[in-house]
Specification:
This protein is mainly alpha-helical. The protein is 69% helix and 1% strand. It has 21 helices and two strands. The chain has a two-stranded antiparallel ribbon. The longest helix has 31 residues. The relative contact order is 0.10. About 16% of the residues have low confidence.
């Protein structure tokens, strides 16, 4: 990476705190959380319970780590009067570089708004306005910061869901309240990701100098929760007649995994903050790689080998690449031998499987690699290879259980030493 690239990134990061404030103004839907509705939803999910070691412990993590519950039944941040939605969206869409495609979406929203005049729907969520507003706030930032906070792929997924929704409504010639509810819920998830990513970036980079390590061209966050959420909401609808999309959200794996990952990253930043405030070096080094990894974790559910690889990469960058710092906190013997640290080595084995050619080297070395990989997978699924969506989800859930235990353990150590 050239010095010019480094300076550009560092300059962008230096203003990220003020950027976070602006993002919170437009995307933040959070207020004092009321967890009762979400808690009820979490307890009712048999799909999740079947893939988890402890549903109650997972629920505790989600409830403590999420500020979404208060927003589940709140109006959309982007809800507009149906008689104004077309004009407002078109105005917002022309302010940024995405105006051609957003103008087309705004026109679809305006067409849908014409069907609301019977009072069946009092407000409409304008995704065109949402995307336009987010991109407008980020327009002066470097591509790195834009991708960190609001990945292009995520906004494209959001726009695609909106276009499909309005096309379905146009084909039917009538409003479909469920579809509009799904759109509002997907919009909420996008706001949550943008707001959270900006806050984590501000926390990480305000505490420690930014440390560029690799070419930014290869470091884009991989986020799929917006893409998979509509299908998961549809599944919950088949399981419970009369459920609303906002009620179904808390039951979806996409929501649960993203919230658990966000809570995990927040514990990592807390550990670093304690180290800083007690005059010690941070355990976790923040760089372009680890920040992209954090954002990816916060917005990814393992549904296939590709998304599983993205999550494994992220855990590897955050934990395995900081293993020497962890050893310095305790001892090398502890890290190598104690159960609480073994999830780090399982991630290393899994990454060897998904990212490297294991049929390389001597026969004994290849045999050992296969044995280690099989044992790592088997620890979470009872199988030596992952072959289904259920396998990927079980492994992701098990890893998050283990890394929660690990970060809680590390948090206890730094607090005690401090």
């Amino acid at each position: 990476m050239s010095e010019t690239q480094k300076k550009t990134i560092i300059q962008a990061i230096s203003g990220i705190s003020s950027l976070t404030e602006r993002i919170n103004e437009i995307c933040g839907r959070m207020s004092t959380p009321d967890y009762s509705a979400l808690q009820t939803a979490l307890k009712g999910s048999t799909l999740w319970a079947n893939s988890m070691k402890s549903t109650e412990s997972v629920m505790d993590v989600v409830l403590k780590g999420s500020a979404l519950s208060a927003a589940l039944s709140a109006p959309s941040k982007w809800s507009l009067n149906p008689f104004e939605v077309g004009e407002f969206s078109l105005e917002a869409a022309t302010k940024n570089a995405l105006s051609p495609s957003l103008t087309a979406l705004a026109a679809m929203e305006a067409q849908t708004s014409l069907l609301t005049r019977n009072g069946e729907i009092k407000s409409l969520t304008s995704i065109a306005t949402q995307i336009a507003s987010i991109t407008d706030v980020l327009v002066s930032q470097s591509d790195y910061v834009r991708q960190l906070i609001a990945p292009t792929s995520m906004l494209a997924d959001l726009q695609r869901v909106a276009e499909q929704t309005h096309k379905t409504i146009a084909d039917a010639g009538k409003l479909i309240p469920w579809q509009l509810g799904v759109l509002d819920t997907v919009s909420l998830m996008a706001d949550r990701q943008v707001d959270w990513a900006s806050r984590i970036s501000s926390t990480a980079y305000s505490d420690y100098p930014f440390s560029p390590t690799e070419s930014l061209n290869d470091l884009y966050p991989k986020i799929n929760v917006i893409e998979v959420l509509p299908e998961e909401l549809e599944y919950e609808k088949t399981q419970e007649e009369g459920i609303t999309p906002s009620e179904a959200l808390g039951k979806t794996p996409a929501f649960r995994f993203s919230e658990r990952a966000k809570a995990l990253i927040e514990r990592v930043t807390t550990i670093n903050q304690i180290c800083k405030r007690t005059n010690r070096k941070p355990i976790f080094t923040f760089s372009d790689t680890t920040m992209m990894a954090a954002v990816t974790l916060g917005g990814t559910e393992c549904v296939n080998r590709s998304s599983f690889g993205d999550v494994i990469d992220s855990l590897y960058f955050i934990f395995y690449e900081n293993i020497e710092h962890i050893k310095s906190l305790v001892t090398e013997e502890s890290v190598v031998n104690e159960d609480v640290y073994q999830c780090i080595f399982r991630v290393k084995d899994m990454r060897t499987d998904v990212r490297h050619d294991i049929e390389h080297g001597g026969k004994s070395k290849i045999k050992k690699k296969n044995k280690d990989i099989g044992e790592s997978y088997s620890h979470y699924t009872g199988k030596v290879a992952l072959t289904s969506k259920s396998d990927y989800r079980k492994t992701q859930a098990g890893l998050y259980d283990d890394f929660k235990t690990l970060t809680d353990h590390l948090l206890g150590i730094v607090e005690k030493q401090g």
